Every structure is written in C-alpha cells, then in structure tokens.
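REQUEST FORM: STRUCTURE PREDICTION
Request ID: SP-0412
Submitted by: Lab K.M.
Chain count: 1
Length (residues): 179
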Amino acid sequence: MRKIIRVVFLILVVIVSSCSSTQSLQEYYVDNTENPNFLAFDIPTSILNLELTELTLEQKSAFESLKKLNILAFQKNLDNVAAYKTEKANVRAILANDDYTELMKMNTEFGKAAIRYKGEEDAIDEVIIFGDNKEKGFALVRVLGKDMNPAHFVQLLQALQKSDFDGKGLGVLNEFFKK
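STATUS: Completed
RESULT:
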C-alpha cells in the first residue's frame, strides 16, 4: 500500500512540476491590451511601403517571411512608477525563458534594447525587441513571421533605408517616443 502511495505521489509531483506557471509573451500581450498604462496595436507589413519589384531576391525573401508586428508599449508617468517596475520585471521574466535566444543588446539614444528570437537560427518564427527608457517607459515589439532568416534582415533593413517609409502610420508610437 505504501508503495502505491509513493508511486502516486511521485506521479503527481512530476505532473505538477511539468506544468509551467510562466506566462507566455502572447498571453502577456493579450492580458495588457486593455490596460490603460499600455498602448497596443498590430502593424501589417504593408505599412513599410516596400515595392517588391525593387528588392533583391534576399530582400524579397526576408520581406515575404514577415507576417506582422505586434507592439505593446508601457507609457510611464508619475502615477504609475510602481506598475512600470512590476510590468518591466514581468516582461524580463518571460524573456528569460529558455524559449528565447538572445541575439544582441544595445544602448541607443532612446534607451536600452535587447533583441531575442524564438525558433531555429535559420528558421526564426518570432523576433522580440524589448526597449526600455527609464523616463518614458518600455516597448515590446514582436516581429512575427515564418522561417525568417537573420542574414536576410540586414538586406531588408538596407531596403527600408532606401524606401520612402517615414514612420507615418505609426503615429501613436512616434508620439510615445517623442514625449
């Protein structure tokens, strides 16, 4: 009888420990879309104003692998400093998950940023950009696609620099960073 109880107990421990209590990034987005501290929106790739006929094969491949961008930005003010710290810690905990591989960190004129990805190195399904500015807040950008190749993104960024994309259509986000 004790053996059976031990086996049942062991099975329960394995089941409970295998269930993850960590919130996924997608769940975090959904949970905070109605939160007044956040700005949340999806951006279609068509907003980038890239003419496919003017792109090289690598640039076309990179562009066609993109589906959309999800943006969630926490706008910090004097009334939500505690919430800012809590939410920033929540995001960092999610991104610390083994599912995300860090690609790079950088310091910019806007603040600190980190880029991570989910998937295989040559077939990325999701790129995460997390930027933080102590005065303004933070932004979390999910670049969603299928089998994205990081080497092609350099080509795509070059094409974006040559395009007539001026940030129009990103009004709310532009205002967020200008404040």
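NOTES: The radius of gyration is 20 Å.
Reviewed by: T.R.
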